[in-house]
Amino acid sequence: MVVQNLPGGGSLVTTNYVYSVAKPDGLTLGMPNQSVYMGQVVGDQDARFDVQKLNWIGSPDRNTTLLYIRADAPYRSMDDVIKAKLPPKCGGSGRDSSSIIFALEDLIGAKFEVVLGYQGGSQTDLAVERGEVVCRSMVLGVHFSRQPFTLWHSKNFDRHLVQMGRKRDDRSADTPTLYELMDRYKTPERGRQLATVLTAGENFGHPMIAPPGLLADRVKLLREAYANALKDPALIADIKKQEYDFDPVSGEELQTLAKIVVNQPAPVIDRLKKILGN
Amino acid sequence: MTFFMALVKVLISIIFLLLLSRDPARSQNNFFSGKTVRIVVGSSPGGGYDYWDACWPAICPSTYPAILKWSCRTCRAADRW
Question: Which residues make Cβ contacts (< 8 Å) with residue B13, sequence separation at least 6?
Answer without folding.
Answer: none
